Amino acid sequence: MQEMPPITIDVVSDVMCPWCFIGKRRLEAAIRAVPDLDIQVRWHPFQLDSTLPKTGKDRQQYLNDKFGGADRARHVYSQIELAGKSEGIDFAFDKIKLSPNTLDCHRLILWSRADDLQDEVVELLFRAYFLNGENLADAKVLVRISEEAGMQSDLVEHLLATETDLDKTRQQIEKAQESGVTGVPCFIIDSRFVVAGAEKPETLAAALTHANETRTSADMPSFGSS
Length: 226
Known about the structure:
- With 226 residues, the chain is of the alpha+beta class.
- It is built from nine helices and six strands.
- A four-stranded mixed sheet has the order 2-1-5-6. A two-stranded antiparallel sheet has the order 3-4.
């Protein structure tokens, strides 16, 4: 009997999205709730704002432009802070001085797949931005994160100075949009089921269980195969 491959979870995400950080925590809890399942998580790029300059934009100006004023922004982010605390995340939005263009972050995540370090890199990017207020548009920060994750940081430093995989990253973002992804996080389970938004762990766990129970031995198309 042919052994079934792992259940894939393709996570479409942007590292400047606080709900994606919350979604990661909830996904981790969901996976812990189904310990008997063989699961493979893969991360895919999305950009909440592709118009941001490469060097980023002043955070306060970005929030004013997006929400129409500081009061509205504070209200929105107060709700996110509460949701974060429930998942053990102490968001430090006041530390963030720059809203980054995240294309280089997504290139780093793409390169980390070769060493099976995507989860580590995504986690470190989220922590650097949302807990420490670091500038993710700064190549030095990304190189340091690559080293902390166990990547070849000297190679990363060289690649970031080039346009390597920029077009590929943009194409992957376009592919997600063409597949119907309009917001993040988005979890594509076993290339068959979609859970949109940072749903509760029990919802994600139920989707994983259902995916496992309805699998067949036929080859399945893969969201992240190209």
